Structures are given as structure tokens and as C-alpha cells.
Amino acid sequence: MGENQMMLRVETEGAVATITLARPKARNALSTAMMAALLEALGGIGEDIRCIVLAAEGPVFCAGHDLREITAHRADADEGAGFFAAAMEQCATLMQAIVNQPQPVIAAVQGMATAAGCQLVASCDLAIASTAARFCTPGVEIGLFCSTPAVALSRAVPRKAAMEMLLTAEPIGAEAARGLGLVNRVVAPERLAEDAASLAASIAARSGLAVRMGKRSFNAQIGLPLPAAYATAAATMTENLLAEDAAIGIGAFMEKRAPIWRHR
């Protein structure tokens, strides 16, 4: 097993894949190797998978960028400038890969998610959190504004709420995160894995084609002016209506029977 693969586990059950960050002693930090492993895992998800759960081991979901790695590169000839730029580019690629992943991605957050770890949660399509989960963008405490986490955070929660998190560095609990829209559901710690799996299974039971098209269209239209958003959505609806699954689903509904999806 390669070093990257040892940093996480990928398990499948039916049409659901679970990717688990597995470096609890390193607080599941997003080192360049961890980001490479996540990108590799996402890229290896097959078309037979219809939903993905992103989970983590230990008390911390993800502590953000690996500060030890960052500090080590200050000794580089360029004082780390090249490494820092490459690491931020890699992180942006990872977050966009989650958004552009054909399958919905659900974050199952068991503990603290800070800085780029909070960014990771905000980048997922859905999030379910344990009551023990906490969320924080604490960069200002170490003289480093969380500028890249702000990109995902500001797209997941209202503007002033994002700015408060970014400027104060104060952690918020799971219920507060739900109130802001950063997470969808809050559950008891002992129910997190089961409830995340149940949510993923319910999504995976739908037409894989419709879900893939819907995720793509949702993300394409969300930042567009209203006329362009409707044009984008209408084109997707037309394409979707011509698909085999739409004919199957509409026929099953009219005949009051369960559909048998072909996922095409």
C-alpha cells in the first residue's frame, strides 16, 4: 500500500463509498500528501457509486493545512514561496474536485473542523455533524487570515456569519453551524456513522443520472444572473426529460409502482 493510501481508507457498501481520513495523530491535517491521497481517491470512484461519505478518525475531523510542513519550507531558498503557492493551488484543486465530483459528497463530521478543515466541510454538498463537532476559521490567531477557507465558507453561510467566523476565530458548535446552513443535520455521536450511511443510501437509491445532472446544474446556475440561471436549468431539464430514467420514473409514478432505475 502506498504512503498516500495509508492516510485514508476507501470502503464501499452497495452504491455508497466512504472515504475516511485516517491520520488522527496528525489531526487529519491537509498535508500535500493527504490532499494528493484525497484527489486520488475521488478520481478513483467508479460510476457504480452514486453517493460518497467523507468521514474521519479521531477527535478532530480535519485541522486544516499541516503547519509543521509549512514551517519546514520556510527554510527553502525562496523562504517557502514556491511551496506555499503550490500547496494553495493543490488545495483549491481538491475543493473544486469535491464540487465537481459527479456524485454528491456528504461530510460526516465527528469532531473539530478548523481552517481548511472547515473549508473541506463547506465544499461538500451536504454535511451531517455530531453534537461534539465544532467549526472554526482561526487563522487570525496566528497572523494568517483564512482567505482560501473563506471562499467555500462564504458560499455555504451568510456573508456576515462568514466574516464573524473569519475575524473572531471563535469556534461554533454543531447546532449553530446548522442554523447558519454549514451543516444539514446534527445527531448524537453514536449515531453519526449510521445516520450518514442512511442519508447516503437514500440518495444512492435515486436515479444516478438525475442526481449527477442535478448536482452539475445546481452548481452551474448558483452564481449566475437569474435569466442565465433559468436558461442553464431549462437546458438540463430538457436533457434530463430525454433520458431513459425520466421515462421510467414518470411511467412508474403514473402507474403507481416503484421505478427500476437504469441510471441512464
TrEMBL record:
PANTHER family attached to this UniProt entry: ENOYL-COA HYDRATASE DOMAIN-CONTAINING PROTEIN 3, MITOCHONDRIAL (PTHR43602:SF1), PTHR43602
Protein name according to UniProt: Enoyl-CoA hydratase domain-containing protein 3, mitochondrial
Cited InterPro entries: ClpP/crotonase-like_dom_sf (IPR029045), Enoyl-CoA_hydra/iso (IPR001753), Enoyl-CoA_hydra_C (IPR014748), Mitochondrial_ECH-domain (IPR052377)
Phylogenetic lineage: Bacteria, Pseudomonadati, Pseudomonadota, Alphaproteobacteria, Acetobacterales
NCBIfam families, per the entry: PRK08139.1
A Pfam family hit: ECH_1
Protein function: May play a role in fatty acid biosynthesis and insulin sensitivity.
Any one GO biological process: fatty acid metabolic process
Transport is among the record's keywords: no
Family: Belongs to the enoyl-CoA hydratase/isomerase family.
A GO term, aspect molecular function: hydro-lyase activity
Keywords, in A-Z order: Fatty acid metabolism, Lipid metabolism, Transit peptide
